[in-house]
Amino acid sequence: MTNPPLDAIREELVTSLEATVGPERNLLKAEPASCRQICLPYPVIDNDDLAKLLYVNEHGETPGFRGFAVDGLFPVAEGGPGLKAAIEKVCAQVSEAIALDANIIVLSDRNANGSNAPIPSLLLTAAVHNHLVREKERTRVGLVIESGDAREVHHFALLIGYGAAAVNPYLALESVAEMTRDGLLGEVTEREAFRNYLKAASKGVLKVMSKMGISTVASYTGAQVFEAIGLDHELVERYFGGTPSRLGGIGLSELAEEVARRHEYAYQGRVAGPGELEIEVGGEYKWRRSGEYHLFNPKTVFKLQHATRAKRFDVFKEYSRLVDEQSERLATLRGLLRLRTGDACVRPPVPSKRWNR
Questions:
Q1: Strand, helix or coil at 93?
Q2: DSSP state of 14
Q3: CA-based torsion, 118, 253, 226, 154: positive or negative
Q4: Residues in the chain with pLDDT values less than 70
Q5: From the CA atom positions of the chain, what is the Rg in Å?
Q6: 348: phi then psi, degrees, rounded to nearest 5
Q7: Would you state the pLDDT for residue 277?
Q8: Main-chain phi, psi angles of 264, to 5 degrees
Q9: SS3 of residue 126 by DSSP
Q10: Phi first, then psi: what are they for 275, rounded to 5°?
Q11: Distance CA 140, CA 130 (A)
Q12: Are 168 and 130 in contact (CB under 8 A)?
């Protein structure tokens, strides 16, 4: 039986967002060394906290801890093979660092440049986490992610769920800082804006955890309580081991191609034409005329409203036809399915006696 969902607000007494970073001892043999970990109030951290973790023992004041940073980048021109080789290289570097007594590993994409693109942070985190599990080294180290592509609650929930002890969304924080300087956030200071963002993001992770009946970040970290949709089975098996994946999908080559498109847009430069925005509007959440395609758009919504207000079934049929046709534009899983036709697809009927039991 699964855990029932928690009410994260009214049952706050039994929930905890406190994250710990560092090596873990034998859970069956409690000893003073088991408590020697670094505690963080929230799993989403700012740049200052990241620097403290990376240089935790720079002056020798905290013996027993050693940070090590690994660049999570790949040569964008090499596509899928380059991405695969880069992931294997990062995994090898992490194992080498652990052999040299590093116990806080920072996976970073901050040093991306014109020829090296960031490995998607979730892919990198899951790959390193599962690599360390296979090598029986996972409890010897804590993973911290310094990521530019993590910006919203679901991103943080996924990264923590696949092994991250803490996440530093540096690009999101820089965006918050710029909004503060431009006066878009009112009278709050930059420090207050950072604190509000980190608290809100961490509370969002708590809400995701509570829906699954998990009350502490310690229980949620590395739990992999997700299902993969649209990823190749071989990719999931290799880098997201143990994650259910009932549908196939894209592999490393397609992921590398998607990263390459964003990388080219960022580094090759783009001149805005007349009436054109310099930055794409996106439209992932809110419908935009030149943005992401949405199944429910002004045309379909108008047809539905008109049909219900005027009580016209013929207009409703127009609405349903629009939705059914649009589902084929990759807006739904149903739009990806096709029914086989012809004599070759005819199967003999199943004898009813097989169901008499």
A1: helix
A2: G
A3: positive
A4: 1-3, 269-281, 343-345, 352-357
A5: 24
A6: -65, 150
A7: 52
A8: -65, -40
A9: helix
A10: 70, 15
A11: 14
A12: no
CATH 3.20.20.70 holds for 12-254: yes
Predicted local distance difference test score (pLDDT) of residue 1 = 39
Q: What is the pLDDT of residues 87-126, one digit of tens each?
A: 999 999 999 999 999 999 999 999 999 899 999 999 999 9
Helices (H), the chain: 47-54, 79-99, 121-134, 153-161, 170-181, 190-211, 217-220, 233-239, 252-267, 298-310, 313-326
Q: d(Cα 203, Cα 195) in Å, to the nearest integer?
A: 12
Per domain, the residue ranges of the chain are 12-254, 298-335
Asked if residue 122 lies in contact with residue 164, where contact means CB atoms within 8 angstroms, the answer is no
- Give the integer Cα–Cα distance in Å for 92 and 86: 10
CA distances to 70, 117, 165, 268, 334 from 168, in Å: 14, 18, 10, 27, 37
Q: Do the beta carbons of residue 81 and residue 44 sit within 8 Å?
A: no
pLDDT digits (tens, 9 = 90+) for 193-252: 999 999 999 999 999 999 989 999 999 999 999 999 889 999 999 999 889 988 888 999
Q: What is the pLDDT of residue 290?
A: 78
Q: What's the N-to-C CA distance of the chain in angstroms?
A: 27
Residue with tokens 């989403």: 44
CA distance 225 to 3: 12
Residue located via tokens 């901050």:
110
Distance, in Å, from the CA atom of 235 to the CA atom of 237, rounded to the nearest integer, reads 6
